[in-house]
Design brief:
Helix content is about 35%, strand content about 5%. With about 700 residues, the chain is mostly helical.
Length: about 700
């Protein structure tokens, strides 16, 4: 019983780290420790630090993507079946915790994982809020505001996933050693109103210049989420009851809050500054004014249960399909666990000529880093005399548009296990690649046919492990192939604030204002005059970043061999692997002008003249671009372009009731099973089974059913 209720009751966060886990024994033990801490200023500081430790959970395991990115329109399952129920909505996705018996499926995120962890943080926040009177004056407002913020944030995540949940705003009662077990679910309205109230308190209490640590939440962090919660109240998920709250008042206030954030925490001038320029722990990228909330990590605090594991989830499985031409290791910024495979929509939503976010988000080239003899290459299809050298492309993704065909002039495509003769053309893109065979090469399209899911090792498009992934979590500071990442994980930034404001404006009837807000964000995404459109970088560069990786001189653990047969160092493997060029030219058919690249323009003139990419998407969904529904869907498209992979997609689609329609249109694995009731997650059966009624009896089957969300 103590394990069942571990999440909802007291769990102290001592010295900035969770103090309870699967071996939690005494429900009141957390109180004994926490109350002692709260008697001293130093103890209060430690408890406040625990608020920040709580959010590290989000990036620590497979739930990071399973609960936030799977089952939507942007990503689907690759070759790994880990978290498959969260994407496919199969019978295994239910109120019961499930894990497979073989392979990656054994790591399927538990259905009660979010429920339990969010209440851990809520418990700590409640202890701090209830101890307001003994907080040192020097930190009183800030500490109290941070406690309100975490409670509001954790309830927002619970609300987004489950709807109405248990509202616990005071430390849990323990009487005679027994914990309370007769909880009732609050309504969605009650929970969201509590969230709004908590964020309002946080906004009023946390200072604008809260800089006790660089990642500290500020007034503007609270303003961002306060605005988001107000928008939530006026969204489709709340349509059954939100008419009693004046729409204009909520939206006007949200817009005002967004303006405050946008003024004081401005956008980076270059999208690359957010992710690609990452050069090591606590570097300038992590201290960007645009970042409003991040999960903090560094080399001294990433060990244990809640390290940063997100670098595992976005890369294709190159160690499997690449034929050994690209070996994995810490010298490549990401591991190839092949969890999150972009859908056709995720590529096609971008203007591949003018939108720099496509080329600054997707990793289109991996360097050839393990020598293969000419006869080995010939067996794979390499024409004589066209053999690549170490450091040339070993894997290449061509992000072309439907109706184009790179194979007609450059040869057949495929992976190393498929005979193919693709030779990179001369005078297109980087000169050093010209007239050389590419061991693994895959375009999005050959003519009208989508190819990106047809060349995986399994041969099944539903389990394809050969695809172009995104780079926002790459980390070249890892000192072991599977070691924890040292970089922070962004949970909120001003780029999203623009989209919150634009959606509020649309819902407020200010179409022109919304378009102006969106165009301001798209201006950052456009190429600047003289900007090199073929340039590429990601966090792999941290291997030689602020300080060289400590494993640089070590011999690689894999089979990376030089041409003379000697095994190379990690440093050499890094130099061969990390290529600072992309496939822009061959993908778009563009050629670099003699005088340098001109600026691009992503301005949208009016709602009836959206970009071709958006027109095609809205046509497939079957909505009118000029209707409110069409404008919301357009904003969801822009969210993809700006925020792809940033840990909130499922909740945004659920909030706007666009989840089912978009998953059916763009996620082939989810389409067969997703239904309207999947807009909410099931309440964990472990929690329901532990409840008692007011008379101390186990709940009847009817009472248990009443606690559960419809459809489960």
């Amino acid at each position: 019983m103590n394990k069942i209720f571990a999440g909802i009751f007291a769990c102290a966060l001592v010295l900035g780290a969770p103090s309870c886990g699967d071996d939690f024994l005494e429900e009141d033990a957390g109180h004994l420790i926490s109350d002692g801490l709260l008697k001293t200023p130093e103890g209060v500081e430690q408890m406040v630090g625990g608020l920040y430790a709580d959010i590290r959970w989000w990036g620590g395991y497979e739930w990071a993507y399973g609960t936030t990115l799977y089952g939507c329109d942007e990503f689907t399952v690759a070759g790994s079946n880990c978290a498959e129920p969260w994407n496919d909505y199969t019978a295994n996705f239910s109120a019961l915790n499930w894990s497979g018996t073989t392979g990656d499926a054994k790591n399927n995120p538990a259905i009660d994982a979010i429920w339990n962890q969010m209440y851990f943080g809520i418990s700590t926040a409640n202890l701090l809020i209830s101890s307001e009177d003994i907080m040192p004056a020097s930190i009183h407002d800030r500490a109290l505001g941070e406690a309100y913020f975490l409670r509001g944030y954790n309830y927002l995540r619970l609300f987004g996933q489950y709807g109405g949940v248990i509202l616990q705003t005071k430390p849990a009662e323990v009487v005679g050693g027994q914990v309370k077990r007769n909880y009732k679910r609050a309504s969605e309205e009650e929970v969201l109103n509590q969230i709004i109230d908590d964020f309002k308190h946080a906004y009023e209490l946390i200072p604008a210049d809260n800089n006790w640590v660089y990642y500290a939440w500020t007034k503007y962090t609270a303003a961002h989420f306060y605005a988001k919660a107000l928008l939530y109240r006026q969204s489709e998920r709340c349509a059954d009851w939100n008419s009693k709250y004046p729409k204009k008042a909520d939206l006007d206030l949200a817009i005002q809050l967004c303006d405050e954030v946008m003024t004081n925490r401005p956008l980076e001038t270059d999208y690359n500054n957010l992710y690609a320029h990452w050069t090591g722990t606590d570097c300038a990228t992590e201290k960007s004014k645009e970042i409003l909330m991040a999960i903090p990590h560094n080399e001294g605090s990433t060990s244990g249960r809640y390290g940063n594991r997100t670098y595992n989830y976005f890369n294709p499985q190159f160690s499997n399909f690449a034929g050994g031409y690209v070996q994995r290791g810490q010298y490549i910024g990401g591991m190839d666990f092949q969890r999150c495979r972009p859908t056709e929509y995720a590529y096609n939503v971008f203007d591949n000529v003018n939108d720099s976010r496509l080329w600054k988000t997707f990793k289109t080239v991996y360097g050839y880093n393990d020598y293969k003899a000419p006869d080995v290459m010939k067996k794979a299809g390499c024409p004589t005399g066209k053999e690549p050298k170490l450091g040339d492309p070993g894997i290449m993704f061509i992000l072309n548009k439907k109706g184009t065909d790179v194979t007609s002039t450059h040869g057949t495509i495929g992976r190393a296990g498929e005979q193919h003769k693709f030779v990179y053309p001369q005078n297109v893109g980087p000169a050093q690649w010209g007239d050389k065979w590419v061991p693994n090469v895959l375009p999005l399209y050959i003519g009208e046919n989508y190819e990106m899911d047809k060349h995986g090792a399994s041969g099944d498009p539903n389990t394809c492990n050969f695809y172009c992934g995104i780079n926002k979590t790459e980390d070249g500071t890892r000192t072991a192939e599977k070691g924890d990442s040292h970089r922070d994980i962004t949970l909120a930034r001003t780029g999203e604030t623009y989209l919150i404001k634009a959606e509020c404006q649309v819902r407020n009837g200010d179409d022109a204002g919304a378009l102006a807000t969106i165009n301001a964000l798209r201006a950052r995404a456009a190429y600047k005059s003289g900007e090199d459109r073929e340039a590429y970088e990601d966090g792999s560069q941290a291997f030689n970043g602020d300080r060289t990786n400590s494993t640089a001189t070590a011999i690689t653990a894999k089979k990376n061999k030089e041409e003379d047969g000697t095994q190379m160092s990690n440093q050499k493997a890094y130099e061969y692997s990390y290529i600072k060029k992309n496939t822009y030219c061959i993908s778009t058919g563009q050629t670099a002008p003699a005088g340098g690249w001109p600026a691009s323009d992503l301005t949208i003139s009016d709602w009836s003249n959206l970009p071709e990419e958006d027109k095609a998407i809205l046509d497939k969904i079957g909505v009118d671009a000029t209707s409110l529904e069409g404008k919301i869907h357009f904003i969801m498209n822009e969210r993809t372009r700006e925020l792809l992979g940033e840990w909130n997609r499922w909740e945004e689609l659920s909030r706007t009731k666009t989840l089912v329609k978009r998953a059916k249109a763009f996620n082939t694995r989810a389409a067969a099973n997703i239904q309207d009731h999947h807009n909410l997650r099931p309440i964990p059966q472990t929690f329901i089974d532990g409840l008692l009624d007011d008379n101390g009896n186990n709940l009847t089957p009817e009472a248990k059913a009443a606690m559960q969300n419809p459809g489960y």
